[in-house]
Amino acid sequence: MFEIVIDDAFGPAMLLYALLGHISCRTEFGVCSEAFLTSIDVVGTCSLTLTAMAEQIVIHRDDIVMEGFMVKQSKFMKEWRQRWFVLTPQYLCSFKNQGEYRNPTEFIRLGDCQTVKSAEDISGKENSICVQTPERAFLLIARTPEEKEQWISRIGRQMVRRAVLVDDEFE
Predict the structure, then answer these.
(1) 28-69: per-residue pLDDT in tens?
(2) Is residue 143 a contact partner of residue 128, using CB atoms and an 8 Å limit?
(3) Domain span(s) for CATH 2.30.29.30 in the chain
(4) Of all helices (H) and strands (E), which one includes residue 47?
(5) Angle, CA of 133, 137 and 140, to the nearest 5°
(6) Which of 60, 102, 106, 159 is most buried (CB neighbours < 10 A)?
(7) DSSP assignment, residue 69?
(8) 58-169: which CATH topology?
(9) Cα–Cα distances in Å, from 106 out to 22, 31, 114, 139?
(10) How far apart are CA 142 and CA 150, in angstroms?
(11) How far apart are CA 69 and CA 99, in angstroms?
């Protein structure tokens, strides 16, 4: 998370573009990324969260930890939709069709995950899973209780594995 102050240096066009929800920016590494406007306070400071663009995610078969159909709750309409899910060491991605590995309909960066747990009490549906990030709780439904436990276990392992790898880099 970083902040960008909208002032005269950016001009009214930048402010208008930021207010539309998305801006393009360059990171310190020179990579062009999409940013999503998350809040504006009264003095005009915009809080932005960098998100990887779904179009840039391409999954290689060798990276797949687990894949299969689950039902997910849509972000805005809260409708339940069947999707093909693919778990890699970095992402949990959903696709409209089985066998797709480019341009996910949605993705969760595992480095952002806080918890993964059973969610029958939240969703009111059997075999449901909640993957919690700072921005959102993703609700998913596995086909069977066994698949639910597999998804929770494997997502959890990738979260822990990722945390250990990141910690090792800083030691």
Answers:
(1) 333 333 444 444 444 444 444 434 467 788 899 999 999 999
(2) no
(3) 58-169
(4) strand 45-51
(5) 120
(6) 159
(7) E
(8) PH-domain like (2.30.29)
(9) 17, 21, 18, 12
(10) 9
(11) 11
